[in-house]
Amino acid sequence: MPAFSKHEMTRRIDALRKKLGENNVDVAFLHTADNVFYMSGVPLLSEWGRPMWAILPASGKSAVCGAAIEQENIQEHSSFDEALVYGDDENVVQASLKLCADFIARRGSAKIRIGIEEALLPVGLFRALQSRFPEAAFVEIGPWLEELRLIKSNEEIALLDLGASLAKIGADAFLEAMQDNVTELAVASHAVAAVNKAMGALSINGLSSTYVYAQFGDHTMVPHLHPTSRRLMRGDLVSLNVFPVVWGYCAELERTFVYGDPTPQIRRPLDAVNEAFDAGKAALKPGAVMADIDRLTRDILQKYDLVKYIRHGTGHAHGIMIGAASREEKGELRLYNRTRLLPNMANSVEPGVYIPGLGGFRHSDVLIVTERGARCITDFPRDIGF
């Protein structure tokens, strides 16, 4: 059962075709899993060495190109017209390229204008396209795709809402697993199992690639560290990170707390992050400039003399997070981004500091911008005690 309705997929296709037409681009060639899924509806959450590409002309038939082992996946989920299928009897990239190039060449003109995700396209693949279409003009269309993805549809928000509900279930399971001497691996696996079990109960067509990070003590300094065999001890700083991924759409819920009684050295940065976190969430509203929200939380952390320990921006866009295209650049809450927030944008707020010898401190919630403010979809206790 496809993740999105025919109406939703037609909306996306028509929007990109309009951009292609306005810019005299004959055909879009999409190579990232994120944008192939967004435009065609075909998910490829794990490539396993076999690419899936998509071709969308400004008018006329479209196609998804994928491996033979993905044939049923393409047939069931694609909103495009044709399936171009290759096997393993020759190099899969060369086979994919030939199928796609032959399909594009059907348009007849040697001086065709081809839209590509230029910033993300491998050099070898770009050169191969140039060799096949020596008279073609190649046009960067990545920003157009980003613009389309930045404002979420109601169906996309429904997926994020489901992910947020699952995140809270996973966070409860994470806390349930906390006990002396437990490993990060045991805590994370318990939370993932709870998320997946709940997804089966809450969704008739759930598709998951959910992950959880449990980081204890000094491991909190590396916020994307996968769980290890490290064991929990009294007094450890703990980083709870639950990331339900439903059909490639990622929500997140993150909390930092102490397993035991916090020392004064830990209490101060935790208080600072708490204040910055609350202020950042309150500032997220339509019309706000993303850079200003990042500056706001930094100023609060500066008040505590902690700005030198900041290692990332205040937050980022949420939605499809499969591969190279990942989240939308203009949804980043960062100092350089002058984009204004608009209704139906989805953003995390997650100011943090990382203090060598002490640990990493960060909370994260996902909010949906509304007409007048923002709705926090991952509402969960901020202050956790053991």
CATH class of the largest domain: Alpha Beta
Number of helices: 10
> What is the N-to-C order of secondary-structure elements (H for helix, E for strand)?
HEHEEHEHEHEHHHEEEEEHHEEEEE
Low-confidence stretches: none
In the CATH scheme, what's the topology name of the largest domain?
Answer: Creatine Amidinohydrolase
Coarse structural class = alpha+beta
- Largest sheet descriptor: 6 strands, mixed
Write the CATH architecture name of the largest domain: Alpha-Beta Complex
Corresponding CATH superfamily of the largest domain: Creatinase/methionine aminopeptidase superfamily
Radius of gyration: 23 Å
Shape: globular
The number of distinct structural domains comes to: 2
- Oligomeric assembly: single chain
Number of strands: 16
* Averaged pLDDT: 95
Helix content: 25-40%
Terminal CA distance: 43 Å
Strand order of the largest sheet: 4-3-2-1-5-6
β content, as a range? 15-25%
